[in-house]
Design goal:
Rossmann fold; Pantoate--beta-alanine Ligase, Chain: A,domain 2; 2 domains; six-stranded parallel beta sheet; 12 helices; 9 strands
């Protein structure tokens, strides 16, 4: 069985052993409800470091919708089973009281509104404040050499990269490509909430991202966006946004940039499940 630490002090005792033995630590932070996408991140993290720490914490601060927090799946025993099979070195499983003790700063003093306001920020106010707070707190507790995160949450990845840079934190952020099902749907803990009918429709979101890429040589970003939104609407998606933005600034593009600098991103509802995805073009 993998060691499980539920307190900060308990983890710090383990961390002291890791450090005294000269081991490098990788952290994969999660909200639980683990799937193959998470496991691929962890396998990659194991190659980077000597010790892999995985955290499971359903962070209330990053849920702007109370109903979404309540509905978020929490199959803890299944998660522990998967982590045992993978052979991680430690599971950090804190309570809210451990993560946010009395007197702990509610927010992190770093100005990132230019990255937190667009895209997801427009539809999930306060979400990224919660993400910044929890990741900063985890980095402070775990003291990893590597922080491994997925590209599916691209805006989150960009924000955390900038936070690390601005605060001069001693950690390397490693981005891992989005892991997809065989039909192209990006793996997500929320996919289990899709009805069987919706699950069959959901891969269209990735195909339409690919369509935007195919339109690059003939149409401007704005024209490509318009065509893709029409197709999403026709397929019964309720679109929050479909944008083509700069990969660094997240600002909308009026013309295509060089290869690898265009982010095509989408958030859309299928029934009562909100899906996000992106590709770099």
């Amino acid at each position: 069985m993998i060691p499980i630490c539920t307190t900060v002090d308990g983890y710090k005792a383990r961390r002291s052993i890791f450090k005294s033995e000269g081991h490098r630590i990788a952290l994969v932070p999660t909200l639980g409800a683990l799937h193959d996408g998470h496991l691929k991140l962890m396998e990659h993290a194991q190659k980077l470091a000597d010790r892999l720490v995985v955290s499971i914490f359903v962070n209330p601060k990053q849920f702007n919708d109370e109903e979404d927090l309540i509905k978020y799946p929490r199959p803890l025993q299944q998660d522990i089973h998967l982590l045992n099979q993978l052979g991680i070195d430690l599971l950090f499983l804190p309570s809210s009281a451990e993560m946010y003790p009395a007197g702990h700063a509610e927010t992190i003093d770093v100005e990132l509104s230019h990255l937190t306001s667009p895209l997801e920020g427009r539809y999930r106010p306060g979400h990224f404040d919660g993400v910044i707070a929890v990741v900063h707190r985890l980095l402070d507790i775990i003291e990893p050499d590597f922080l491994v995160m997925g590209q599916k949450d691209y805006q989150q990845l960009t924000i955390i990269r900038e936070m690390i840079k601005r605060l001069g934190l001693p950690v390397d952020l490693v981005a891992h490509p989005t892991i997809r099902e065989a039909d192209g749907l990006a793996m997500s803990s929320r996919n289990v909430r899709l009805s069987s009918k919706a699950r069959k429709q959901a891969p269209a979101i990735y195909r339409i991202l690919q369509k935007a890429k195919a339109l690059k040589d003939q149409y401007s970003p704005a024209e490509a966006v318009a065509k893709c939104i029409i197709e999403l609407d026709e397929r019964i998606f309720r679109v929050d946004y479909f944008k083509i933005v700069d990969t660094d600034s997240l600002k909308p593009l009026t013309s295509w940039r060089m290869q690898g600098k265009n982010l095509v991103c989408v958030a859309a509802w299928l029934g009562d499940v909100r899906l996000i995805d992106n590709i770099i073009v």
